[in-house]
Amino acid sequence: MLSKKSINAINAVVWLGFLQSKGPVSLQKICGHLKLSISCLEQIFAGLKSAKLIQSFKGPGGGYFISRPVSEITLWDVAQIFELADTSTSIKTQAETSTGQAICQQSLFLEFQRISERFLSEMTLQKAIELCLAGQPSFESHQFDSQNRFKLKPMTINKLPMGPNSIFNWSAMQF
Fold first, then answer.
1. What are the residues whose beta carbons fall under 8 Å from the beta carbon of 162, sequence distance 6 or more?
2. Is residue 111 scored above 60 in pLDDT?
3. N or C, which end of the chain is more exposed by having fewer CB within 10 Å?
């Protein structure tokens, strides 16, 4: 089964692939879209960077970008970085339960793992980005909604006073 970290990594790389057309992407931009903390994304991007899937630039205007063409990267390339460590621990915890139940759970888990790996191996990052774009009504409207976090009401038009609002304006009023 895919870990939460793998799912977050896939989402982050898809957003990175989508946003990188305008230059390197900061973690804050991705963080705003995924609603994840910066520290969580830093851990994910450290793993992706050590696997050489992404590169980074430091300083003003810096950020992250995908190091290879998005058509060459599969979602399994991203997920396997975080799955290899999680798979061994989950199998060990299942083996510590009763023998018959552990064998059944382990075979189901391994079958699910094979199906997931096959699907993610066939899905390129380019296909994932295109699927996400097809599901989005408009990126500009989504971007505006995320920046308008206060949800302010439109301003009302102030009406001019019908009568004098002080004794000094009394003489200026025409009746």
1. none
2. yes
3. C
